Amino acid sequence: MKPELVDILRCPQIGSRLELTDARSSGTEVMEGNLRTPDGSYSYSVRGGIPRFAPASNYADSFGLQWNHFSRTQMDSHSGRPISAERFWAVTGWTPEMIKGQWVLDVGCGSGRFAEVALSAGAKVVAVDYSSAVDACAANLGQYEHLHVVQGDMCCLPFAPGTFSFIYCVGVIQHTPDFRRAFAGLIPMLAADGHLCVDYYEKSWRNLLAPKEYLRPFTKRMEKKRLFSCIQSTLPTLLLISNVVGKIPFAGKYLKGLVPVANYTDILPLSDQQIKEWALLDTFDWLSPEYDNPQTPKFVREIMEAAKLVDIEVLKAGHLVGRGRRSSERTAAKHCAEYQKSRLQIRG
Length: 348
Known about the structure:
By secondary structure, this protein is an alpha/beta fold. It has helices at 61-69, 76-79, 83-92, 96-99, 113-120, 133-141, 179-186, 205-208, 211-219, 224-246, 252-255, 272-287, 297-306, 332-347, and strands spanning 19-26, 29-36, 43-47, 50-52, 103-107, 124-129, 147-151, 164-170, 190-200, 309-317, 319-326.
């Protein structure tokens, strides 16, 4: 943790500033220490250079396992393909010029695939995740001067209100227990004129017929390492079936979707080995989460309007995407009031 991060950290319970104590550093990084409220009522640890505002084990454990195992798989610097970059710019609608030098919050960073894109564009990125995936993110991107990694809950983010000019949450919010509450946790973090982008699964009849919908009620209850092993052992067969079925004239592309495997053959420019690795990663991602809550475009527009965002767009860019901006008329006082209200709601 870089000492400058302390300036924007806040207690996720009461919103107060935090003081760094018992710090042990390596070069310019604080590797171990404690973050305490001035009255000593709350304390949080810094371990491995990362402030920890989440319990060691939580509902996102499967993502911690996933991203620490596949820590480099979807990083463009590893795959040699701009897959993550193309998705990031298409989903957010932003440009490198817009985020250069700006404070950007990556909510649900995983191993850092999108944080890498934003950092490469010159942004100052705070990457936060509820799971131990933060360790993979820090290991992957520690060479970037403007990276800050935090383990915390998006429903109760540990930052000063109005800090971030850009916030994105890609492929994450549907895996929280309460979509509305998670979304509400993002709003106070936006600066005046700040931009927000949320990517989420769509609730539709077609998606409700996907294999994960009838398998996940069982697979989410399996011990995660056992589930991973099962998927790994059946993957070659499932990929073969998917590829064969996909070649059936006319109906192939629809029948292929009934095979419970993430198959990117002829979709992404990956090698055969990469196809297998991405398939294993994303099939586990489908079947392992504790929560999976798709939403409709109408619902997301409604909660964005309720948050008083302007320039709202709800569109399809791979998954469904909600974009909006916080009006400059939303003052610092309103930021703070909403921030404190969200804390009271979480605590209640």
